Amino acid sequence: MAKTALLLGASGLVGSHCLQLLLANDNYQRVITWLRRPLPRQHPKLQQQIIAFDELPAGAAALREVDEIFCCLGTTIKQAGSQAAFRRVDFTYPVEIARLAVQQLGLPSLQILRPSLLLGQRAEFRLGERLGSAVFGLLSFAFIGPLRRYRGIAAADVAAAMIAIAQSGRTGVNVYESEQLQAIAAGKGRWANGGAW
Q1: Stated pTM of the model
Q2: 49, 73, 86, 148: most buried, per Cβ within 10 A?
Q3: In terms of Cα–Cα distance, which of 61, 71, 52 is closest to 100?
Q4: What is the pLDDT along the chain (197 residues), one digit of tens a residue?
Q5: How far apart (Å, rounded) are the C-alpha atoms in residues 162 and 102?
Q6: Could you tell me the CA-to-CA distances from 96 to 5, 92, 102, 137, 152 in Å, in that order?
Q7: Would you tell me how many other CB atoms lie within 10 Å of the CB of residue 159?
Q8: Domain locations along the chain
């Protein structure tokens, strides 16, 4: 049965990759995006909804239309303008969306992805991330054992892991670190054999 996905953060680094994968995936008949501004993209499966994230409970009824929710919201303090605004986007909105999803849908699972430094080409220049990417790239060999979870990860790999995890049918609350996300995206290790982390 083809599913309907709700994607939040479709204009961002991970969200744009996730949108591309969802639209190309035959398991999804419709992809709804909640956005502050419309995307310059059209697709027969894509339904863009402009919303005010501060008024999320007003959109709660729309959650009944979806089978899966992909939350890729994120920002920087510089973009947000203050620590409070940053926390609202990076923490408050995702938690509120999860709470509404449980209330409206009774979803059988919550999959939490905790990637390390996100690698990829962003629309805006972020000096700290560029420097971090360079340092992580040069020193990636040093991130072994327990430090492996801090290796940078390509945004495209995070998006691919999100889709693979959603397709896996895992239930309950599960948390995935960067190392696991990289293996899942590559179809390696225990994940490749249908095992769980």
Answers
A1: 0.82
A2: 73
A3: 61
A4: 799 999 999 999 999 999 999 999 999 999 999 999 999 999 999 999 998 888 876 767 778 889 999 999 998 888 889 999 999 999 999 999 988 888 887 778 889 999 988 888 756 655 555 565 555 555 656 656 666 666 789 999 999 999 999 999 888 899 999 889 999 999 875 555 555 55
A5: 19
A6: 18, 6, 10, 35, 28
A7: 26
A8: 1-107, 116-197
Name residue, tokens 């959109």.
59
Is the distance from CB of 197 to CB of 178 less than 8 angstroms?
A: no
The residue type found at 107 is L
Main-chain phi, psi angles of 5, to 5 degrees:
-110, 145
Judged by phi (left if over 0) then psi (alpha if -120 to 50, else beta), residue 117 lies in: beta
What CATH number was assigned to the domain covering residues 1-107?
3.40.50.720
CA distance 166 to 21: 12
Strands 28-35 and 109-114 turn out to be unpaired
